[in-house]
Structures are given as structure tokens and as C-alpha cells.
Write a structure and sequence with these properties.
Number of helices: 17
Number of strands: 10
Strand content: 5-15%
Low-confidence stretches: 1-13
Helix content: 40-55%
Largest sheet: 6 strands, parallel
Mean pLDDT: 86
């Protein structure tokens, strides 16, 4: 895939003209704090959930006697890279080692990275992550029973959240065609495995414009641009087969686990990573929400050493809960590795994601100012 790197081409790509109005291209980079507004877990809360899921016992015959039944079934079905079935008791023992040591690790990714060469350890960790995130989706404010035609999402009950605030800007004084153009101007790069962005837009479009799910799926396929840097748990749709929150099906959990990578393995899809970097290079506005500014993640999105550094952007950045010293390190990484050492002010704001979008709603609506 070839990307445009000339300054003239970058300038052209940073704006999109629709119906005589110049549309400002916006790229959103999100972390766990953005999903937290929908009751998804933070990193620390995810660790606690995984610790509970990985509490297994085996009997005198080496059979799993207690523990999470879905994960236990996943262990029974799991195969090694050679195609041979693993011993479920061995995987349960790995799960217990993970549980006992999670408190010593910065994250589950770090712990699995320390044991990346050990047979089955990464697989157990990914199964636990998939099960935990799918359970969190099921318990989130965005889940509803898609198999019940009378059970539709009620957006009046959602807690304050950034996607509702953004949706309001995208539908302001617009019909469906204008909304599609506005959605085209947004790009989403997320470090989360969950599908809150996809689930929200599928259900919000269906509800707001009162159209059927098949049309919504087509709209989202063409106009909703989302990249999961480390993989997601699978696609989302409006019909009854939607995988959002499907945490009780062991086959689904197993398939979802295969789609993700922990960050110590690197980004899973080079094409997606190249596309994410091209979005950053050709955007005017970067909106960073609920992101911890981990230097490793900042470097994942940075230009390669031989590439031209990024043009300067307009930034909107939340930094809720991030210590000032850590923000200084983030500033250093961004200035040096994204912008080639240019003296550039990076405006961190101690606010929640929904507050950031609400305060900048005029700027994020489409017309130039």
C-alpha cells in the first residue's frame, strides 16, 4: 500500500469537502478511560477480574474440579501450534500461576511477555482477556438482548459519555446523508479490545434514523473507520448474531482470543498499523481520550526512524489520573519521536472524555471556524 507523504498531498488529505462545506478530519485515539464511561473496566479492574477467572482447582486425577466453567471448556478445546490438544489441567495450572503473579506485574501483557516462550501461557492469558472483556461488554451500558425484538437500547438511560456527545455534533442540523459525510471525517484508533465504538454507532444510527439493521451494517461498513491496534474480539452487527457481550459461548470466547495480541507481541496487523499512521499523518485534529500515554504505545504509532516526522497537529487530550512526571515523559516521546524534536506545546487536560467532547463541540462540528 502506498501512502502520500508530500506536504501538498498531506494538506489536501487533511480536509474533505462535502456539499460546499470544508470538513475537518479528526482522528480519535482512545484508551481504557474512554470505555470506562460505558462501565468497561480500567486496567486495574481488568486485572482483578482475570484473577478471579483464573482461580482453578484440580482433583486427584488431574481433572479440573472448580473454576470458571467457560474457561475450563476453552481449556478442553484448546490446541497447541502443532494441532495437538493440550492437557486442560496443565492450562488450569498456568492460569493459577497467572492469577498468583498478576499483582506483581504492571499488566497482564507484561506478565505474559515475560513468559512468551512458554508453551500455552500466552494462549491462557488471551482466553482470560477475551472472557473478561466479553463479560464486561455484557455488563456494560451498551449491551442489550439483540434476540428480543422488543428489547432495544434506550439512549436516555446511558451515563454521560463521549460517544453521545460526539454523535450530537455529527447529527447537528443534518439528515442521514449529511451524517454519513460527517462520520467519514472521523477516524478512531483504539488500544482497547472491546467494541464500544462499533456497538454505539450501530445502535445509535439504527435508533436515531429509525432504519433497519441491514442498512445500518452497510453504513458502518462504509463510513465507520475504526482500527484496534492490538486486535479486537471480532466484528459487530445489528442483527441477532452480534458478538458484543457474547461471554458464555466457549467457542466464541476461543475465537475471540485468537484475534488479540498483547502489546509485548507488537501490533497484530501491519496493514492496520500503516493505515493508523497514515491517518495521523493526514489529520488536522488529534483527540486523545482516556489514554494512559504509555511510552510503548506512543512509539507503536510513531513514524519509523527513516520516515518523515508527522506534521504538527491541533491536540485535544485528556490526562485524567496520569501523574505530571509521567506526562512529561509522554511530552518528550511525542516531541522527539513524532515531531522530530520541534518545540511544540502539548495541551493535556485533567478531564473526563465526555467533558472534553462537550467543551469542544463547536470546534468538532464540521464547519471551519
Amino acid at each position: 500500500m502506498k501512502f502520500c507523504n508530500s506536504l501538498a498531498c498531506q494538506k489536501r488529505l487533511r480536509y474533505r469537502k462535502t456539499d460546499g462545506i470544508m470538513k475537518r478530519i479528526k482522528t480519535f485515539i482512545t484508551g481504557a478511560g474512554a470505555s470506562k464511561e460505558f462501565d468497561l473496566p480500567t486496567g486495574g479492574e481488568l486485572v482483578k477480574e482475570i484473577e478471579q477467572l483464573c482461580n482453578f482447582r484440580t482433583d486427584q486425577f488431574g481433572r479440573i474440579s472448580s473454576g470458571d466453567r467457560v474457561l475450563a471448556r476453552c481449556f478442553e478445546l484448546a490446541k497447541s501450534k502443532t494441532g495437538e490438544r493440550w492437557n486442560p489441567a496443565y492450562l488450569a495450572d498456568v492460569a493459577n500461576k497467572l492469577r498468583k503473579n498478576m499483582g506483581l506485574a504492571p499488566s497482564i501483557d507484561n506478565f505474559l511477555g515475560a513468559h512468551i516462550e512458554k508453551d500455552g501461557w500466552s494462549d491462557v492469558g488471551k482466553l482470560a482477556i477475551a472472557r473478561a472483556i466479553l463479560k464486561a461488554e455484557r455488563n456494560s451500558s451498551l449491551w442489550f438482548d439483540s434476540g428480543n425484538i422488543y428489547n432495544n437500547p434506550d439512549f436516555s438511560t446511558l451515563p454521560p459519555n463521549w460517544l453521545t456527545e460526539l454523535f450530537r455534533t455529527l447529527v447537528s442540523r443534518r439528515g442521514l446523508d449529511e451524517f454519513k459525510a460527517a462520520l467519514d471525517s472521523c477516524r478512531f484508533i483504539t488500544f482497547n479490545y472491546d467494541r464500544t465504538i462499533e456497538q454505539f454507532f450501530h445502535q445509535a444510527i439504527k435508533s436515531y434514523f429509525d432504519i433497519d439493521g441491514y442498512e445500518v451494517d452497510e453504513i458502518c461498513s462504509e463510513h465507520l473507520n475504526v482500527i484496534h491496534v492490538y486486535g479486537s474480539l471480532g466484528p459487530v452487527s445489528c442483527d441477532g448474531s452480534s458478538s458484543f457481550g457474547n461471554s458464555e459461548d466457549d467457542l466464541h470466547v476461543g475465537a475471540a482470543a485468537k484475534r488479540i495480541k498483547v502489546f509485548t507481541e507488537g501490533a497484530p496487523d501491519d496493514a492496520d498499523l500503516l493505515r493508523a499512521k497514515s491517518w495521523i499523518r493526514t489529520t488536522e485534529v488529534l483527540v486523545v481520550l482516556g489514554f494512559g500515554f504509555l511510552p510503548l504505545n506512543l512509539r507503536v504509532l510513531a513514524p519509523e526512524p527513516e520516515e518523515e516526522k508527522y506534521p504538527l497537529h491541533t491536540w485535544l487530550m485528556t490526562s485524567k489520573g496520569v501523574a505530571p512526571k509521567n506526562l512529561e515523559i509522554a511530552r518528550t516521546v511525542l516531541r522527539n519521536e513524532w515531531y522530530g524534536g520541534r518545540d511544540y506545546t502539548l495541551p493535556f487536560e485533567d478531564s473526563f472524555a465526555n467533558e472534553m467532547i462537550w467543551r469542544n463541540s463547536f470546534f468538532l462540528s464540521e464547519a471551519d471556524v
